[in-house]
Specification:
Layout lengths: L18 E4 L5 H12 L3 E6 L2 H13 L4 E5 L5 H14 L5 E4 L16 H27 L4 E6 L14 H20 L5 E6 L16 H12 L11 E3 L2 E2 L3
Parallel strand pairs: 1-2, 1-4, 2-3, 4-5, 5-6, 6-7
Antiparallel strand pairs: 7-8
Helix pairs in contact: 1-6, 3-4, 4-5
Length: 247
């Protein structure tokens, strides 16, 4: 019996038929990813820990013409994840795109020998385990139709060969997320579900700080990975601005 993860790929749905979920999307990079996906005609669920902030952001994007709905979502909460998956199942019956954007604990002033283990655990809980468990929960919705795009928002500082000793909790959590990306892509080969990691570069957000490039430029590469065509099947890669970078 064929594993459900190896189900044959289906035809690509039209953009207007696709449903996307973006975590950590009420501001910054996540908000811009949501804006760009909605501009393509895709229905987008805007995941946010704070329901009021999420609804405010979604309302603004709807005024701009996008089909965007707020979705209360703390990726560290299985109760939130289960409730959201049940909602997607009820309202749409499918999920075509998942952007694991929720991230935190950019501990730039810490070092590996001095960082609090509590910070390390919290970074792993959000940046790795949150993305992992959300992905596991929504996979059946993608497998049902033999189509899906999973994008893990990573960072160049999570590359094994990257220099620097700062941001140890964040760096390790993103390196682990990269490893998970590669394993999942290998497991899902041939299923119609493509899995990739994207580094947006240094962008000017609350987490990235001033001096980075425009958020729209960093988001564009993520939206590209979220809307990749089925042929050629680009999966298991690490990208920045649509170009492969080293793991």
């Amino acid at each position: 019996m064929r594993s459900p993860r190896r189900r044959a790929a289906a035809a690509e749905p039209e953009l207007a038929q696709r449903v996307a979920l973006v975590s950590g999307a009420n501001r910054g990079l996540g908000l811009e990813i949501t804006r760009q996906l909605a501009a393509e005609g895709i229905t987008v669920l805007l995941g946010a820990r704070n329901p009021l902030a999420g609804e405010k952001a979604a309302r603004q994007l709807r005024r701009d013409g996008g089909t965007v709905m707020a979705a209360p979502l703390d990726v560290t909460s299985m109760d939130d994840i289960r409730a959201l998956v049940a909602r997607i199942e009820r309202d749409y019956g499918r999920l075509d795109i998942l952007v694991n954007n929720a991230g935190a604990y950019f501990d730039i002033d810490n070092q590996a020998t001095s960082v609090s283990m509590d910070i390390v655990r919290q970074a792993l809980e959000t940046n790795l385990l949150g993305a992992w468990q959300l992905t596991e929960a929504v996979l059946p919705l993608m497998q049902r139709h033999g189509y899906g795009r999973i994008v893990n928002v990573s960072s160049g500082c999570g590359a094994i060969a990257s220099d620097g000793s700062g941001c140890p909790a964040y760096r390790v959590s993103k390196a682990a997320l990269n490893s998970h990306t590669r394993m999942l892509a290998m497991e899902l080969q041939g299923s119609g579900i493509l899995v990739n990691a994207v580094c947006p570069g240094w962008v000017a957000t609350d987490m990235g700080g001033h001096g980075g490039r425009p958020v729209a430029e960093g988001a564009a590469g993520i939206v590209w990975a979220a809307t990749l065509p089925s042929r050629p099947a680009i999966t298991g890669g690490f990208f920045r601005d649509r170009m492969r970078i080293d793991w």
